[in-house]
Design goal:
The chain is α+β, with helices and mostly antiparallel strands. It has an eight-stranded parallel sheet, sandwiched between helices. The chain has a six-stranded antiparallel sheet with strand order 8-7-26-25-28-29, with no helix packed on it.
Length: 863
């Protein structure tokens, strides 16, 4: 039987099944005369004959029938301008191919190649995420515990009433690839994405995580293995791929997919995970003809460059304008895997390379005319991976200088020359090279597996032993659907773009910093990957650079960023009670553009100060507002911010301390810096004796009465409320001013219109801190009546000691209150606490606190 003959061929070839769809033969060249690579795996006795363009299906069948009858064979199938011919399994197909190629009208002849997905292995032991890492566009990182993420709440109107619901999907947060690819930013988007055709082992369309009510996200396409209309997944691989694309979000089941659109299931691979070029090409053309499909996902491949598959891709890309996303393969090599390698313009139809020149203008039989519509996807490592972290330091050591010596001190700058974040590096199975264009999460990926019926991986690979319908797989097979889902998400935002434009857009919006080039120069074989023995570190490379030649350099690849591709960003901030520093439970924060509310969040849990505003259009000014009963008068604008595509943005302009709505005036300062200590003061008008500086009190100084936390019920009728950046590390301070006795609007010392309360901050405790951003907001009656920003550097020479006195402190004057009006300021100066009374250095040259009088100087030397 042909199948037994096929199995014997597998044994003879000693195939090692790698992580993701493979054929294990080099390319068979296409041309006038077929050239056979005898190491290629193909179905015994079968040949694919393609006739020239313009030949009708009927004429092609008639020609194929005449040829097959003359040579003692049969026409098994006909599709388009090609036919599958079958001869005796012992026939010399190479000789038959030579003879057929000489017949009139024949354009190509090739074996019916065998494609495989890998022999399945679990992606690793089940991993529950403890925290998630976020990055802002300026390179800052923030790691937040999963408990805090799950506690965040978004505000929605349900039946006309405000309701707080989780900010992120409520199901388990174990799909790290969902976070790493930026899907967390855009998941609330309601515009439905176009369909993705998954050409694979089929999909279990009844899996609960695909059901929206009684309707499945999975559309049954066709089964080209069993020739029927129910592409059931008897392997497990296709269902896993489909889950990454479109598992339903926020349904309290399993995890969330990236897209909110349909998956069209097309079965071309058997329960054991193998299929033929004929079936794969037929599946591609089937997908190409569907109007509900924009992207075709091919988590399969191999080393043979099938001409028939190329023709199918040509039809899909150039005639039907589909984007094809293909896995790069899991052999840890730079050798080409097809169809993914055709994404590179220097890889020809026949699998040869013209690197670095494009493979065009040679002749029509080898010119690559599909690269613009194909994406080759490599696999990245999980940030928690321990596969090669021998030192257990959460970094991957690559011996870049080849000296075999590892620096372990993270304070040594040289440490960072050879150590890289795990998620910036290649998975140890991923193929690489200049032909690999985009990277996505591929290690330890949680996704769906069949539940409606038994499947091959369940019985022969110990998958889903708990029968919950989910499993961890690893491979570029798992990376590809992240990109396919990202592509249709982007297409939903930019529906007029063509397939080549969507490819270019994904590459233009991908992250470059997450593909770190670094290679051990001792690695002699550029195609050996992790099988190389010529490296001393924990890995031969993070991603290969140009050390062994530009063709193996993967540094031009980018890492998928779905949110950037959708031109969406997010805001991250915090809201506190300005007096106590305690998170302001119940505060509602909104992001608006004009009168349209784009997202809103609520602080719904005690102890949780954070809010997230998601899926914000990038490049537009977003107004951020806060509202809290008993604190604000309606919505108060705390920031106007432009969201950056693909990232969360945070900073003191998005943090806000909100004081109670009472008869006092409150000045609240926020600054940029964790565990950094600024001190805030208010200088009161000098109208009835010595003026007071209200602020941090130094009880050890003789003049402590003049540098006091103050009192709201007696002179000075002002109080410094909290010490920011110290103890609790919250970078916020506030001062409250009581009204003049008998008045509800004017502070106590404002007797004339010229009397001012001046607000200042100093970095005396931490010199240089005033080089960072600071914002002061002034509140009255639940409204922000003014604000001042210090965006420029105060200390231009990098030190505070301007006058040469060791006691110099840098000050920033933020503005002043006159009556009930705030005038913003932004002036820097030096306060010298040991100079004489008439120094006059702006803003305040203060007498020594240990002097006899202890009276601070006003600007210009006036007491």
């Amino acid at each position: 039987m042909k199948f037994l003959r096929f199995v014997s061929m597998l044994v003879a070839a000693s195939m090692v099944f790698a992580a993701l769809g493979v054929s294990y033969s080099p390319v068979v060249a296409q041309g006038d005369v077929p050239v056979f690579d005898r190491s290629a795996l193909y179905v015994p006795g079968e040949l694919i004959v393609t006739f020239g363009r313009g030949v009708s299906r009927n004429d092609g069948y008639s020609s194929a029938l005449s040829i097959s009858e003359a040579l003692g064979g049969d026409v098994v199938e006909t599709g388009g301008s090609a036919s599958l011919l079958s001869f005796d399994e012992s026939a010399d197909v190479e000789s038959l191919a030579q003879e057929i190629a000489s017949q009139p009208g024949v354009a190509k002849v090739e074996p019916n190649y065998i494609r495989w997905i890998p022999e399945a292995e679990p992606g690793g032991s089940s991993h529950t995420l403890d925290s998630v890492r976020f990055r802002s566009v300026d390179g800052r990182t923030r790691e937040i515990s999963m408990d805090k993420l799950m506690a965040m709440r978004t505000v929605k109107k349900v039946s006309g009433r405000i309701k707080a619901i989780p900010s992120y999907p409520v199901e388990n947060y174990n799909q790290w690839g969902w976070w790493a690819s930026g899907a967390d930013i855009i998941w609330p988007e309601k515009v439905v994405s176009p369909g993705v055709c998954v050409v694979d082992t089929g999909v279990d369309y009844k899996h609960p995580d695909f059901m929206v009510g009684t309707t499945s996200r999975i559309v049954n396409g066709y089964d080209f293995v069993n020739d029927d209309t129910l592409p059931a997944d008897d392997n497990g691989h296709g269902t896993h791929v489909a889950g990454t694309i479109s598992a339903v979000m926020n349904n309290k089941k399993g995890f969330s997919g990236i897209s909110n659109g349909k998956v069209i299931a097309v079965k071309v691979l058997s329960a054991q995970g193998w299929g033929t070029s004929w079936n794969i090409a037929e599946g591609i053309m089937y997908c190409a003809n569907r109007l509900d499909v924009k992207v075709i996902n091919l988590s399969l491949g191999g080393t043979a460059a099938s001409g028939y598959e190329y023709d199918a891709l040509d039809y899909a890309v150039n005639i039907k304008k589909k984007l094809v996303v293909a896995a790069a393969g899991n052999e840890s090599t730079s050798n080409y895997s097809f169809p993914a390698a055709w994404a590179a313009p220097f890889v020809c139809q026949d699998g040869t390379s013209t690197f670095p020149a494009d493979c065009t203008g040679i002749n029509p039989t080898v010119d690559n005319t599909i690269h613009q519509g194909v994406l080759a996807v490599g696999a990245g490592v999980a940030w928690f991976s321990k596969a090669h972290d021998d030192n257990n330091d959460d970094y991957l050591w690559v011996d870049v200088d080849g000296d075999g010596l590892q620096i372990t001190d993270t304070l040594d700058p040289a440490f960072w020359d050879e150590h890289f974040g795990m998620d910036q590096c290649a998975a140890d199975f991923s193929n690489y090279g200049a032909w690999v264009q985009i990277v996505a999460p591929g290690e330890d990926i949680l996704s769906t597996v069949p539940v409606s019926y038994p499947f091959y991986d369940e019985y022969y690979s110990n998958m889903d032993l708990d029968n919950d319908g989910y499993e961890w797989y690893s491979g570029t097979s798992m990376a590809a659907p992240h990109v396919a889902a990202g592509a249709v998400r982007a297409w939903s935002m930019f529906p007029t773009l063509t397939n080549d434009a969507i490819k270019d857009w994904l590459l233009a919006t991908g992250d470059t910093w997450k593909v770190q080039p670094a290679m051990d120069p001792n690695m002699a074989d550029p195609s050996a990957g992790y099988d190389s023995a010529d490296y001393a570190g924990e890995a031969p490379y993070c991603w290969p650079d140009a050390t062994l030649g530009a063709e193996f350099d993967t540094s031009n690849a980018v890492y998928l960023n779905v949110a950037a591709a959708m031109n969406r960003g997010a805001i991250w901030g915090s809201v506190y009670d300005a007096i106590t520093g305690i998170p302001l439970k119940g505060a509602i924060v909104k992001a608006t553009i004009g009168t349209s509310v784009k997202d809103q969040a609520v602080l719904a849990n005690d102890g949780d100060p954070y809010y997230n505003l998601l899926n914000l259009p990038a490049g537009l000014t977003v107004t951020v507002k806060v509202n809290k009963s008993g604190y604000t008068y309606l919505d108060q604008v705390i920031a106007a911010h432009t969201a950056y595509p693909g990232y969360y943005e945070w900073g003191p302009w998005l943090d806000v301390g909100v004081p109670p709505n009472n008869k006092r005036i409150h000045a609240v300062a926020n600054w940029d810096g964790y565990e950094e200590d600024l001190d805030m003061f208010v200088w009161e008008p000098d109208v009835s004796g010595p003026g007071f500086i209200v602020g941090p009190w130094d009880p050890g100084s003789a003049s402590g009465i003049y540098l006091d936390e103050g009192d709201l019920t007696s002179i000075p009728y002002a109080r410094w409320n909290r010490d920011g950046g110290f103890g609790d590390f919250l970078a916020m301070e506030s001062i409250s001013l009581a009204p003049k006795p008998g008045s509800s609007t004017i502070p106590f010392y404002n007797l004339t219109v010229n009397d001012k309360y001046d607000f200042l901050l100093t970095d005396g405790a931490q010199p240089g801190l005033l080089n960072e951003y600071v914002i002061l907001r002034v509140w009255a009656g639940g409204k922000i009546i003014g604000y001042s920003e210090k965006a420029d550097t105060c200390d231009t020479n990098g030190i505070n000691n301007v006058s040469g006195d060791a006691d110099d402190e840098l000050w920033w004057w933020a503005g002043s209150m006159t009556g009930s009006f705030f005038t913003p300021g932004d002036i820097c100066g030096v306060g010298d606490v040991s100079s004489g009374p008439n120094g006059g250095v702006w803003p305040y040259r203060v007498k020594s606190r240990n002097s006899t009088s202890g009276i601070p100087e006003r600007p210009g030397g006036t007491k």
